[in-house]
Amino acid sequence: MEVSRTVKCASYWDAMVLGSILEEQGVQVRRPDEVAPLSMVATGALDAIKAAAAQLRQKHPGSGPVIIEGEDPNDGAPEPSRPLSAREPSPAVEPPGAPPVSEPPGAPPVSEPPGAAERASRLPAPERSGGSRAPEPSWGTVLATTVRLWAERRRGHWWPTQTRWRLAVMAALAAVVFVTGGVAVELAGPGRGEPTPSRLSGGTPLGAGVITAAQAARQQAAAWVAGQVSADAVVACDPAMCAALQAAGVPASRLLMLTPASADPLGSGLVVTTPAVRARFGTRLATVYAPVTLAAFGSGAARIDIRVVAPDGAAAYRAQLAADLRARRAAGATLLHNHGIHVAGAARAALASGEVDTRLLVTLAALSHQHPVEIVRFSSSDPGASVGEPLRSADIAESVTPGGARPASLASLRAFFRAQRAPYLPSSLEIVRIPPTGAILRVKYGAPCPLGLLGTRS
Residue 206's pLDDT is what? Predict the structure, then answer.
């Protein structure tokens, strides 16, 4: 007779493996719509549900308790036909020097039910008193084992054929392991004295407050990347961060997942440096691979940075950045002397100091030959960015033409920008109202700002 029972596990790892065992035994499994579900509703034979719980404990002795609705927590599977202790006491509980137990003279032999010996051989041996307990596996090992078991159990049943969906599945699995239990995904096996994501830089285990702060920072970073980064930029991330980025709308094809086999984040345009990534690469992130920060979220152990990857090394990137700054200053000074462009207040200082994104400088110069340009301000949406990061957004108002003719409409200005091609096509164009100016056209380009567009890279 089929029954439906809610089954609760101690961890997501246990729940995922148990769900796979249940499905293999023909039990229907329905999981709640949660990020890391610890429970499921199993529909099938009660003995099959209990047997699956017993199989989990036998194959993985380190797994936590499994609670089946309406059943004794200590009775998660049918009892073996004959308790081992009836005739074969464990050496661990036998007192020193005790005589061996012998059968009474003339006692009839006890026959074992078919298959009992085989079942007994699969039962875990009792833990010896005073013995050392096997060390707990690292979270890196747990993650690898989780993905391997999940894939093996579904080989031939359901395994995506497209690489991008395989990435999505792997990222989702890694994300829940990252969250469950209050530890971060371990990108590499920790060596002696190395910080691990579960014990961040200070060596203190993660508390509930740090876990909450890390989750909030991850969501903020994912939203920023989805809304501010150029659509063609490849982003390197740890598995949990990749899952958050996909949930925020970043396509899997743009994600480069950092795994224990990843030697570096090269090959991407940006890297999201979570605590796990910092523990993996250490100071090399800033001194070798990604010297410039575009945005930062959170603080302390929960801080997450979005950094620009330097394909030719940090030193070469800084040299290119310095040359690009000089070129932007020269271009800004030229625009300030352009009679077709009127620049207000603080926007003049931004142009003169080279703080404006190269793509804005080029398109504004081209626009000034068709329409008068009224620049209200330049701005950026990059919290915690490194000093000198260009301003990627401009607010443009309608400007009166010489002689008092009707100014160019914001719609016509927007049409000009929409007609541009990459890399000069803005990532966002919107008409908004700001006091006291009124309606303006907000032009925004995605991060990061490409170097060398003004003709120099060194």
Answer: 55
SS3 state of residue 115: coil
What region, left, alpha or beta, does residue 78 occupy, with left being phi > 0 and alpha being psi -120 to 50 degrees? beta
184, 206 contact by CB (below 8 A): yes
SS3 335: helix
Nearest partner of 110 among 139, 87, 142, judged by Cα? 87
Q: What is the rounded distance in angstroms from the CA atom of residue 236 to the CA atom of residue 251?
A: 13
In CATH, what number does 2-77 get? 3.30.70.120
What is residue 164's predicted lDDT score, i.e. its pLDDT? 47
Which amino acid is located at 160 in the chain? Answer: P
Q: Which are the contacts of 240, defined by CB distance < 8 A and separation ≥ 6? A: 171, 174, 175, 177, 178, 179, 184, 185, 218, 274, 276
**pLDDT one-digit tens code per residue, 85-123:** 434 444 444 444 444 444 444 444 444 444 444 444 443
CB-count exposure of residue 166 (10 Å: 0-12, 13-18, 19+): middle
End-to-end CA distance of the chain: 77
Q: For residue 391, what are the β-bridge partners?
A: 356
Span 373-396, pLDDT tens digits: 999 999 988 898 888 899 999 999
Sheet holding 373-379, edge to edge: 341-343, 373-379, 393-397, 438-444, 428-434
Under the phi-then-psi rule, with left for phi > 0, alpha for psi from -120 to 50, and beta for the rest, what region is 340? alpha
CA distances (Å), origin 92, targets 89, 131, 134:
8, 9, 16
Selection from 212, 203, 275 nearest residue 241 by Cα: 275
| The pLDDT of residue 19 | 80
DSSP SS3 for 142? helix
Spatial distance between the Cα atoms of 440 and 374, rounded to a whole number of angstroms: 10
Show me where the domains of the chain are located: 2-77, 161-311, 315-444
- Report CA-CA distances (Å) from 30 to 19, 177, 278, 351: 9, 20, 37, 59
Instruction: Answer whether 0.70 is exceeded by the pTM.
Output: no
Which of 1, 21, 133, 145 has the alpha carbon at shortest distance from 77? Answer: 21
**Helix, coil or strand: residue 37:** coil
How many CA atoms, within 13 angstroms, populate the side-chain half-sphere of residue 46? 11
For 129, residues 6+ apart whose C-beta sits below 8 A from its C-beta are: 92, 93
Instruction: Name the more confident of 363 and 131.
Output: 363
